[in-house]
Design a protein that fits this description.
Mean pLDDT: 89
Radius of gyration: 18 Å
Strand content: 5-15%
Structural class: mainly alpha
Order of helices and strands: HEHEHHH
Number of strands: 2
Shape: elongated
Strand order of the largest sheet: 1-2
Largest sheet: 2 strands, parallel
Helix content: 55-70%
Number of helices: 5
Length: 107
Amino acid sequence: QGGGSNIAEGMSPLKLFEYMAHGKPIVSSDLPAIREVLSDSVNGVLVSPDNPSDWVKALQRLRKGKVFRDQLGRQAKADFLAKYSRIARATNILKEIESRVPSSKSS
């Protein structure tokens, strides 16, 4: 804030991946870069970055809702392992390389 530039457009949600890997319930600003990783009420809670009362409501919801809190954490961890872990990312990179390399099999 205050500088006039919006850093959210070029951000990388690295901290999200740490929280996801640990199965933690996440409350985050509803920003495009975050929406690429989190889905509201599926693997996190997305709130307006400019509305403090939304943050309070989200935190109260998590505090009161153990089942919901645990479900968010489990889903976040499952999504991390499936999409964002080192193994998942390396596997996706290898698949992409293989799809671009011509097959050495000759007919």
